[in-house]
Amino acid sequence: MRQPELPVTDQRRGTRAAHEALPAPMREAVDDFADHLARVRNRSAHTVRAYVTDLVSLLDHAVRMGCADLSELDLTVLRSWLAKQRTMGAARTSLARRAAAARTFSAWAHRAGLLAADVAAPLASPKAHRELPTVLRADQAAALMAAPDATDRDGRDARRPGDDGAPADGRSVDTAGRAGAPPAGGDDELEAVLLRDRLLLELLYATGVRISEACGLDVTDVDQARRVVRVLGKGGRERAVPYGVPAQRALDAWLTHGRPALAAPRSGGALLLGARGGRLNPTSARRIVAGYAEAAGLPRVTPHGLRHSAATHLLEGGADLRAVQELLGHSSLASTQIYTHVSVERLRAAYRQAHPRA
Which of 47, 89, 239, 307 has the greatest number of CB atoms lying within 10 Å of its CB? Predict the structure, then answer.
């Protein structure tokens, strides 16, 4: 398993430029803090980048307010920074994350002797409004799982839903998104892509894993004898997640007939491969899921929507909340409890629709 690399974006380029413009002691503090997050706290590359982006924004704001040294950072500067973010239209969830990043940095800087006090300790976070996730009904989930079979029967190009960033016309693109010639290979390759897509959909719905976790899986992470997959989640936490018979059938077909047709020297041990033989990346996987949902006439579906659906269906089927928490890899039970609200809302909707005195 490995953490998929994130693409370089305009925001990251802007963060790099702002980082280089900071005074040298502040740049060193940012770098040391990033190293602390990655090596000591074992945070993912995505989390480290998010926190560094927030910290660079904070320190850039502090410099503009006249702070010549990190020791001059105080609560007034922190509140001014968040207020500016708010006026620029930042969502409450973004403000809450940025406040958390500021508190984490302040506590670390105080322990490291860079700040005389933990200045961000009193900093309050805006309470984020948690919307109930959109979930599929069981029959809709079944229709999505069957979508690759319908694609095969209709004789359409299996790459239409998107593969390795391919646009809808079936042209090949590399992971950077540049259009190119149609990929080499004929029916065998198209069949292999269909088998890969079946496994991707079945795996996401059967296990409820995050899309980055699914794309990071290696063949050796799957225990077919016990029907369990070993997943590396957030914070480097590892967990074992079971999967069912339909996912096992899709896995058998992919490993026997699909993966060998797409495998290349660059494949390594990756379980899910793109049409060019490299590890399937999360962006392409999202496009594949959305494409099949559209083909099946379903509402817009994302891999995270399948995760929501899996959790909700487990709870509706009588699964224990703690067991679902372990399956999803949530560090806090509060993150899992939102699915109990989803189930109640679905029950209320069914009641309002069916009961004559609702």
Answer: 307
Which is catalytic among the residues 234, 239, 286, 346? 234
Among 68-77, 139-148, 179-188, 311-320, which stretch is predicted with the lowest mean pLDDT?
A: 179-188
- Report the C-alpha gap between 2 and 349 in whole angstroms: 41
Q: What is the pTM of this model?
A: 0.65
| The one catalytic residue among 210, 276, 287, 313 | 210
Q: Where are the beta strands (DSSP E) in the chain?
A: 222-223, 228-232, 238-242
Query: 């198209």: which residue's tokens?
Result: 190
pLDDT tens string 156-165: 444 444 454 3
Q: Residue 292 pLDDT > 80, yes or no?
A: yes
The one catalytic residue in 103, 307, 308, 313 is: 307
> Is 210 part of the annotated catalytic residue set?
yes
Active site residue 339: yes
Domain ranges in the chain are 10-111, 139-303
Told to judge if 266 belongs to the known catalytic residues of this protein, a careful annotator would answer no
| Coil vs helix vs strand at 279 | strand
**Domain 139-303 architecture:** Orthogonal Bundle (1.10)
Res 192 pLDDT > 80: yes
Quick check: is 160 catalytic?
no
234 catalytic per annotation: yes
The one catalytic residue among 51, 243, 292, 339: 339
Q: Where are the beta strands (DSSP E) in 209-270?
A: 222-223, 228-232, 238-242
Residue 257 annotated as catalytic: no
Options 86, 286, 304, 346, the catalytic residue:
304
Over residues 317-347, the pLDDT tens digits come to 888 778 888 888 877 776 676 776 666 666 6
Per-residue pLDDT for 240 more than 70? yes
pLDDT score at 7: 40
DSSP string, 32-52: HHHHIIIIIS---HHHHHHHH
